[in-house]
Amino acid sequence: MAKGHKKHKDGAPSVAEVKSAYEKDLRGLQVELLKVQMHVTSHSSKILVIFEGRDAAGKDGTIRRFAKHMNPRQTHVVALDKPSPRQSTQWYFQRYVPHLPSGGEIVLFNRSWYNRAGVERVMDFCTPEQYEEFMTTVPYFEQMLRHSGIQIFKYYLDIHKDEQKARLDSRQEDPLKRWKMSPMDAKALKRWDDYSLARNQMFTRTSSPESPWIVVRADDKRESRLQVMQHFLSAVDYDGKDETILHPDPEMVFPFTDEDLRNGRIAP
Description:
Blueprint: H1 15-43, E1 46-53, H2 59-67, E2 75-78, E3 105-110, H3 119-122, H4 128-147, E4 150-158, H5 161-173, H6 185-190, H7 192-206, E5 213-217, H8 221-235, E6 253-255
Parallel strand pairs: 1-3, 1-4, 2-3, 4-5
Antiparallel strand pairs: 5-6
Helix pairs in contact: 1-8, 2-8
């Protein structure tokens, strides 16, 4: 056994062993993602992957590892800033449309138009009328995208309150993470219940068999990254798929149902 990979006395794997296993699994899945990209390019397909979740849920890290080895000419990560005064007067979806995938492209949204169902709703950055207009029209908007040939995947990274607090605290303590801090961080925990309600309403009103929300239990960052990739790869058709490494855990990554609001699988 290599130096640094000794087991603990109780037989449990060491930290180094756990990390090594994670890196091995990650590499295998990243190889599969490259196969997807080649398939998408050769078939001129269009894939849109949306990542939502609470502050510090792990969206940045998941997207970074998802796209790390993919060709940046065909894979684009989109993380829009708050709308400009001009954009605030536009049709709500207008500033997102230019970033949608063309043939042969994969686009990953780090937050999306669902800002309106989450932070804008909770922090009163939109009016009740604007919120209701969004919730009513977004299923039709996504239907138009699907009819245009875009495959849509919507992932919500779900964490518990204690885990969010620990991650937000680490941002303040680690100088390499301070760029992630925002004025919203201090309000995230104080408005926890409001965000939970907004999340639940978003799930209930915008998840459908054609465009489901996929919930990812993300308290374990490394495992949740692997689970997102495995779910995505299992759901996409592509040449040369290695089924032996694709085994998403249905207790960690699953399509939302109303029962999930009562069975404890979603953080309260």
